[in-house]
Amino acid sequence: MTLRPRLARETILTAPGVYDALTAKLARDAGFEALYLSGAAVAYTRLGRPDIGLTSVTEMAETMGLIRDRVDLPVIIDADTGFGNALNAQRTMRLYERAGASALQVEDQTYPKRCGHLSDKSLIPAAEMAGKLRAMADARASDDTLIIARTDAIAVEGYAAALDRAELYLEAGADVLFIEAPESDAQLSALAVHFAGRVPLLANMVEGGATPIRSARHLEALGFSIVIFPGGIVRALAHAAEAYYASLAAHGSNAPFANQMFDFAELNARLGTQAMLETGKRYGAE
Fold first, then answer.
1. DSSP percent split of the chain into helix, strand, coil, nearest 5
2. H helical segments located in the chain
3. Residue 59 and residue 52: Cα distance in Å, rounded?
4. Sequence-ordered list of residues with C-beta below 8 angstroms from that of 226, at least 6 positions apart, any chain
5. Residue 41's closest CA among 180, 202, 229, 182?
6. N or C end of the chain: which has fewer CB within 10 A?
7. For all residues of the chain together, what is the average pLDDT?
8. Confidence at 1, pLDDT banded by 50, 70, 90
9. Is pLDDT above 60 for 51?
10. Phi, psi (rounded to 5 degrees) for 148
């Protein structure tokens, strides 16, 4: 469940967004090597709210623990701003690490934060963010738990300032850099060139966001080490759910929608129900 050896390889790591144990299992079964537990996706699904800093550290840690109970893949978890100052960030590290996270992504927005692809973001001083990173490094139980430093500076202070912040965060101990919301292919390419051979870079693909959507293969060729697709699963499921409820309301039956959903047996097959029941029998009375 460690990521450091995997990031030493040249092949990019694709981590799809998940928000619960079911989506984590389905992603694992699709063949992915790692997962991304998205704070936005948890806000969308558990709260029915936008990604504007409403989720709590305990809600995220609980979700992480439930995922870890179901799958054994490495999980990158969204730690937002660390949920406060450096001491809060240390607590977040301890909670997430105990819950089974393999890497924590922390960002330099003010708290409460908002989605990196929304406007009107604001940032804490770079030195304060560097202090959070050092505090998190001191608090982690294992050096195998990676710290991913994200800066939202491109949209707030400009591209050059984002580079300056990323350099400071690298000096402070970041294991991976995540420069949020590059606005063009030129910026994506320039980031990869600037940090080539020095630190793994993470790219964030948000459908309809500020960054051009590019494939994992394209980003690998540029020099990125990780690509996440954090909210795609929620957008897909919300689209399907809206169509499902509209169909049920119109017809009073699921029959017209049957070819777009699993039946009882099909879902249980994907959940591994029979195997779990057989396991339970081994512990039953003789």
1. 50, 15, 35
2. 4-7, 21-29, 39-42, 57-70, 86-99, 126-139, 153-156, 159-171, 185-194, 216-222, 232-251, 264-271, 273-282
3. 15
4. 7, 12, 13, 14, 15, 76, 176, 200, 201, 202, 203
5. 229
6. C
7. 95
8. low
9. yes
10. -105, 115
CA distances from 160 to 23, 170, 211, 223, 270 (A): 37, 15, 17, 19, 48
Q: Per residue in 14-49, pLDDT tens? A: 999 999 999 999 999 999 999 999 999 999 999 999
Q: Is the dihedral of CA 6, 37, 55, 159 positive or negative?
A: positive
- The DSSP H or E segment spanning 120 is none
Report the distance separating Cα 108 and Cα 83, nearest Å. Answer: 11
Choose among 187, 226, 181, 184: nearest CA to 206.
181
pLDDT in tens, 143-198: 999 999 999 999 999 999 999 999 999 999 999 999 999 999 999 999 999 999 99
